[in-house]
Amino acid sequence: MQLDPLGTFSRTHRNGELRLDHAGKTVRLMGWARKVRDMGSLLFLDLRDRWGIVQLRLDITDADPALVEKARTIRSEFVLGAEGIVVERESKNPNLATGDVEVKLTKLLIFNTAQTPPIPVEDHEGQTANEDLRLQYRFLDLRRAALQKNLYLRSEVANITRNHFREHEFIEVETPILTKSTPEGARDYLVPSRVHAGEFFALPQSPQLFKQLLQVSGFERYVQICRCFRDEDLRADRQPEFTQVDVEMSFVRQEDVQGVIEPLMVKLAKVVGKDVSGLFPRLAYKDAMEWYGSDKPDVRYDLKLQDATSLFANSGFNLFRAAADSNGQRRVRAIWVPGEAAGAYSRKQLDELQEVAKQLGAGGLPYAKWGKDGLSSSFKKFLEGDAEAQLKAHLGASGEGLAIFAVGTDAQTSKVLGELRQRMARAFKMVDESKFAFLWVVDFPLLEWSEEHERFVACHHPFTSPHPEDMDLLETDPGACRAVAYDLVLNGYEVGGGSIRIHDTLTQTRMFRALGIGEEEARAKFGFLLDALSYGAPPMGGLALGLDRLVMLLAGADNIREVIAFPKTAQARCLMTDAPSPVDARQLKELHLLKETPQTYRVGAVFFESAEGGNPELRGQALQQLGQLTPKQAQGLVTLDNQGQILEAQTLSGPTFDF
Ligand code: ASP
Question: Distance, CA 323 to ligand 1 centroid (Å)?
């Protein structure tokens, strides 16, 4: 097909802005053909550009036959220029912003054709193609209105964020991408150095150390919207590379950092029509775990975990009584869900919940349910006499409802009930989806014991300040030491996290010691930080917001891939570019990554000459061809290193020669 050049043709209007006011005007438009409908005497086509869609119309009977012929060649997604007169529509389309008008075509330019898209580009409600295909053809997928909307929102969020920090006198500083491993606790992405054989850069898991160093340099208020990289197993709300709004401030307490972040959240929530003004609640980590079984609780619904251990001190139910006898090592914890729906929960639904509980490590799912026909329970025979009433009173239960239980260590029961709490809230429609519930979870533990490493590891990172009241515990009871660390939580997601930092060498050294990092290792890994701390580091603190996750929640999407232009799959692969992909041996060699293993070839005959020179490549090729000989044809074996130098040669019948 003959394509038209763009030439001097330029648009007078954007497609989405045409209204009745424009009637009678001649307009020139650009865009993609969305739908062509040939009705015989009339031809309609929708033209889409970034700003919207407008209907073009061609009256076949009185139009120029050449124009009609051209219009009939148009298929979906052809790239067009159109000229025409805006007219009022006979039958209006109230679902379209431009639905009162259409454009009577007088001229059509075809700038490009398009193959039939392998995925629907139009956004029919609920009609979305297989995600792998969408990611493979992401450039088409991104034409869909839903994704366009998400990316505009993302851009808006980034702009508001930059402006917010500018208003507060923050400076944006870029920090290196090729850097040294930083200890956020995840696996690093490594980049081999060509110049320094066997040495590697790490991609930053965050600019943590650099932003602290910028405080030592005196910038006082730093922000950066930056990419971070973590080689972790992926979940729906994680990507191997992600964007953080990274913040650091000097001479601050945690309230000062929170005080800068909260008004930003108010502004961002407003973009999507939510009012979250007012102080965000603070919840101690300990309470979050006790009441919600999670350090990022969804507090849009009032469903709390309860301790029921003492109730079973004299129970015949061994499983529960054993916990009551364990001196607090193990506890019985419960969630009570009031209401008829919960009381009428079926056997099958309970089995499904139990399945989830088992996947989370529980042995089963003890329950007590009060429905229309009274009590049914997996441990009913132990609830005879007063026991039933005592249980109800303890749980604060009246009327119909369902109580589920978990028994074990706090970590085990929190894991099971924290997850079931969310599932039950959803199942019983207790979640107000229109609500944005922000809160700060504070006073996180500083350290946690790692079974894998058999030592304490930092809950946040090793530069987090111990709580001033717990400083002495660093040596005496490290596990009990709290940190001045805080997470910002929204609707059950962690959208940010930060801490007040250690700013003196002595405390930093004590912290490293608590982490089992000796002096030598500390110097090798963080010598520059320790040096910097000794040259006048101010008290400092900061935080990082996960921009992708935040935009996902603002957009009401259920997956961060929906707010990232070119995301990777859960298997950490880009289906469009097919990265990661193998590279050729030459590149690997340059990067010192090719294992230099000697190869042994079968040869037809073994000759030896003392002369230097010859063409090593040809010699290599000849040897490889000879190497394909069958053992029967071969008369000898030659072993070469990967420079083509002979390491060893032997005739299959005769003696072996060493080189
Ligand atoms: N660097 C930390 C993180 O990425 C955030 C912070 O402490 O500012 O989680």
Answer: 38
Amino acid 444: pLDDT: 98
- CA–CA dist 580, 315 (Å, integer): 58
Bridge partners (DSSP) of residue 125 are none
DSSP code of residue 380: G
Cβ neighbours of residue 596 closer than 8 Å, sequence gap 6 or more: 641, 642
Q: Which atom in ligand 1 lies closest to the alpha carbon of residue 247?
A: 8
In 10 A of CB 339, how many CB atoms?
15
Write out the two tokens for 150: 């998400």
Listed in order, strand segments (DSSP E) in 433-554 are 438-442, 447-450, 455-458, 485-490, 493-500, 540-546
Cα angle value 89/90/93 (rounded, 5°): 60
User: What distance in angstroms lies between residue 287's CA and the mean position of ligand 1's atoms?
Assistant: 23
Q: Which two tokens stand for residue 520?
A: 């030598």
- Quick one: how many helices (H) and strands (E) in the chain? 18, 26
| Ligand 1 centroid – CA 494 distance (Å) | 12
Q: How far is the CA of 118 from the centre of ligand 1 (A)?
A: 41
152-161, 256-265, 566-575 — which is least confidently predicted? 566-575
Ligand 1 centroid vs 557 CA: distance in angstroms?
24
In whole angstroms, how large is the CA radius of gyration of the chain? 34
Which of 610, 571, 639 is CA-nearest to residue 231? 571
Task: Report how far apart, in Å, the C-alpha atoms of 228 and of each of 188, 222, 240, 395 are.
Answer: 10, 17, 8, 45
d(CA 242, CA 265): 19
Q: Does 498 contact ligand 1 (Cβ within 6 A)?
A: yes
- For 233, other C-beta atoms within 10 Å of its C-beta total 11
- Give CA–CA dist 608/606, Å, rounded: 7
CA atoms within 13 A on the CB side of 357: 24
List % helix, strand, coil for the chain (3-state, nearest 5). Answer: 30, 25, 45
324/409 Cα distance (integer angstroms): 12
Give SS3 for 35.
strand
Q: Residue 291 CA to chain centroid, in angstroms? A: 27
Nearest to residue 623, comparing CAs of 611, 642, 220, 216? 642
Q: How far is the CA of 543 from the centre of ligand 1 (A)?
A: 5
Q: List, for residues 602-658, the tens digit of each pLDDT value.
A: 777 655 554 555 666 766 666 666 666 666 667 778 787 766 778 887 777 665 555
pLDDT in tens, 489-514: 999 999 999 999 999 999 999 999 99
Q: Residue 141: which of 611, 636, 567, 659 has the closest Cα?
A: 567
Q: Which of 543, 548, 549, 550 to mutate to test the pocket of ligand 1 (most atoms within 8 A of CB)?
A: 543
Spatial contact of 232 and 203, defined as CB atoms under 8 Å apart: no
Residue nearest to atom 7 of ligand 1 (CA): 498
**C-alpha dist (Å) from residue 196 to 173, 176, 193:** 28, 18, 5
Q: What is the mean pLDDT of the chain?
A: 92
**With a 6 A CB cut-off, is 542 part of the ligand 1 pocket?**
yes
Average pLDDT, integer, range 409-428: 97
CA-based nearest residue to 637, from 658, 652, 653, 659: 652
Pocket-testing residue among 208, 226, 465, ligand 1, by greatest number of atoms within 8 A of Cβ: 208
Helix (H) or strand (E) holding 291: helix 285-292
